């Protein structure tokens, strides 16, 4: 991915989102562009208009941390956007490199044992490209449509945009799609030279207009905790809490766990899913 293009489009889309009223900028005359003008961002950030213009055109390599902080404040960037800006600057300082294919990280047996011990929690480990690298039985039951193609490793982004079943599986499909693209966009800023990520983005952009539109928005987010909504083919509607935790000993990997509140219908449906998963696995063992 071209760093200069990424910088230019990220900064220009953030600038377009901030109204003069939000930034405390006086309004004079008619405005031809949405959001702030470049000279207004420059003034708020404490730099010259010429210098900010060069930065927004993609020349971020020489920007100091203090300048980046000033721009982040001027554009009212949230935590995820601020981290993304610094990731883009870090990549710019490293200079252009050819995309490289990284070896697929392996999940240590001890991590798999932790997953397997979580019998009332659906849990999996993923990388920044949303490849599912390890999971427990309840997760495989919860995400049954994602796991039902044995010829290919499960990938949550491909399922979201390329499998028509995802629109029924995710009741809030729009929200799920937005989150998926934001996670991939965040990862692209963190590791712009990951060839597998570049290929995945190219595949999704070629095959899905919904993905292309969202990718062009340059939105990023930190996906740490919240509530996930499912419409499962076996147990129906299911609302569960999720928590995502990075694995410090495995850089780039995240463990995500889904739990149901005690005494709720979701807890009962999780128990039903666990029973169904055990039945399916026993049947598979017999067939095998």
Provide an overview of this structure.
There is one protein chain. This protein is α+β, with helices and mostly antiparallel strands and 288 residues long. The protein folds into two domains: 3-94, 434 Repressor (Amino-terminal Domain) (Orthogonal Bundle); 109-287, Beta-Lactamase (2-Layer Sandwich). The chain is built from 15 helices and five strands. It has helices at residues 3-17, 20-23, 38-45, 49-56, 65-74, 79-94, 109-117, 137-142, 144-147, 156-162, 166-169, 173-190, 195-207, 209-216, 265-287; strands spanning 122-126, 132-135, 225-232, 236-246, 254-259. The protein has a five-stranded antiparallel sheet. Helix 10 crosses helix 12 (173-190) and helix 12 crosses helix 14. 34% of the residues are buried.
């Amino acid at each position: 991915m071209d760093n200069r293009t990424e910088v230019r489009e990220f900064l220009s889309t953030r600038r377009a989102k901030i109204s003069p009223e939000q930034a405390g900028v006086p309004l004079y005359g008619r405005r031809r562009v949405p959001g702030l003008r470049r000279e207004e961002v420059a003034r708020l950030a404490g730099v010259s208009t010429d210098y900010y213009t060069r930065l927004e055109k993609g020349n971020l390599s020489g920007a100091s941390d203090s300048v980046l902080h000033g721009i982040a404040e001027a554009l009212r960037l949230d935590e995820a956007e601020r981290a993304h800006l610094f990731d883009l600057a870090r990549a710019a300082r490293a200079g252009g490199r050819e995309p490289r294919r990284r070896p697929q990280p392996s999940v240590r047996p001890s991590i798999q044992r932790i997953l397997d011990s979580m019998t009332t929690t659906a849990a999996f480990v993923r990388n920044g490209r949303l490849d599912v690298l390890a999971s427990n039985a309840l997760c495989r039951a919860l995400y049954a449509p994602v796991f039902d193609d044995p010829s290919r490793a499960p990938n949550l982004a491909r399922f979201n945009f390329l499998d028509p079943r995802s629109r029924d599986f995710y009741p809030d499909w729009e929200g799920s799609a937005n989150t998926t693209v934001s996670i991939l966009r965040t990862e692209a800023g963190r590791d712009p030279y990951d060839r597998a990520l570049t290929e995945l983005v190219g595949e999704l952009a070629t095959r899905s207009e919904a993905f292309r539109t969202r990718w062009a928005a340059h939105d990023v987010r930190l996906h740490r905790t919240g509530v996930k909504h499912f419409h499962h083919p076996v147990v129906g509607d299911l609302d569960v809490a999720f928590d995502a935790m990075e694995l410090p000993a495995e850089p780039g990997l995240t463990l995500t766990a889904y739990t149901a509140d005690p005494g709720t219908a979701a807890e009962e449906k999780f128990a039903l899913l666990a029973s169904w998963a055990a039945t399916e696995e026993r049947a598979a063992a017999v067939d095998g």
